């Protein structure tokens, strides 16, 4: 009996007991923690975005933009985002992509972030995210197809609607939420936040402001330029001024890369353009993009110069071996920005962001401009972008003879007319009309309208200035980070398993080792 008493009071038994109790307590605590975390994850769908750029989270700029754009409607806007598949199917669709781990579900998750932030409380509007199975519920699928005026509907459609007035809607595609490198096909930016916010503003405002691209004169423009207008919460259409009248909802006209002149005379294109810009109640604006190959278009040039002090010099191509992109033979000019000494001008306001960011703004195949700075005609003219003093303007006459002249030339200029708004919404408020002339159509190409260059920032700033009664997006697309860690629900569950299995196992092993070691004390 004495021997048994010695066993229970020995150091071996005492230390072994402590080890076992310690292991049991730690394991019990971790199991309890795991149950709590699992419950909260199922209830609140926890996601933790640890990327440096907060790739999968809503930025402060989103809420700031919505407040400015919606004004009084910010507190009670009601938006519904509809995905055309069951929620859990997007992880399955992700498996079909090799370029991104969560290509489809990341877009879905961003939409759900809006629903969490905007739940109709706290003085904010409401966003509802819903999922319909278009195969299992064909009646609902057909109803949505009719509302969104879709010829066909599939699981890749995302429909954003004004909940109380479904005629105001936007349709997004998953692919539009990403930027893809044109050469490699690799994804490099995520812009779902931009897309959703722009669509929400358009639907919530329940009004239509339209940008019209002219046609019928050989014009062309990039898809990215059109997309930037859409991201600036505007509709986009095309119009042949020689054959059609300008709709009332058009506030900005864009003439891009024309090859044939515009007609004069009553009812002609120039006449319609003149009346459009002469309407002082609507504050309309005009953008014109030309290049070194744009022919002499006398009617268009006369209108721009006589009314707005802007002109281009046909067949005067600008090159610069020093201030241009490498490998472009001096033809893709890196422009100089209007300086801060011009701080009160429209030109400086549209380039100030790009200038402060110290990013290059590129104008390929550029033609020299001729502008009347200061007051002229209807507007006050200022130069936004110009070439360096080492640039060369090469002119080719009708006989094919060339001449060159070295110097600094205007590459982009803006003419502004100021007036005061007095209507139901404005009392003696400052209102402006803008005409922008750019000497490079490639300035607004897919290649250069991105975060790498200042071109995109300048286009957004021009939109912001011209859309007098609108707020354009100031939300930057987010770069993918190769070394970033994004911890979401699925990843969190995997990590939980590691913590709740591997860590306790390690503790058990250490405890057993301590126990057997103590047996020999």
Number of discrete helical segments = 13
Strand content: 15-25%
**Strand segment tally:** 24
Separation of termini?
22 Å
Could you report the average pLDDT, rounded to the nearest whole number?
83
Largest sheet, if any? 9 strands, mixed
Helix content: 25-40%
Search tags:
single chain; 521 residues; alpha+beta; nine-stranded mixed β-sheet; four-stranded mixed β-sheet; 13 helices; 24 strands
Provide a descriptive summary of the structure in words.
Helix 3 (60-70) packs parallel to helix 7 (192-205). It contains 13 helices and 24 strands. Mean pLDDT is 83; it is low at 422-429 and 483-492. Strands 8, 9, 10, 11, 14, 17, 18, 21 and 22 form a nine-stranded mixed β-sheet that branches. A four-stranded mixed β-sheet has the order 3-2-4-5. A four-stranded antiparallel β-sheet has the order 16-12-19-20. A hairpin with a 2-residue loop joins strand 17 and strand 18. 35% of the residues lie in helices and 25% in strands. The longest helix is centred in the N-terminal third of the chain and has 34 residues, at 11-44. With 521 residues, it is an alpha+beta fold. It has helices at residues 2-9, 11-44, 60-70, 89-94, 103-117, 138-147, 192-205, 223-231, 269-278, 298-308, 346-357, 454-466, 489-519; strands at residues 48-49, 78-83, 126-131, 157-162, 169-173, 178-180, 187-190, 210-214, 235-239, 250-256, 285-289, 310-319, 332-334, 336-337, 362-364, 366-371, 374-376, 379-386, 392-396, 402-406, 410-422, 427-438, 478-479, 486-487. The radius of gyration is 31 Å and the shape is elongated.
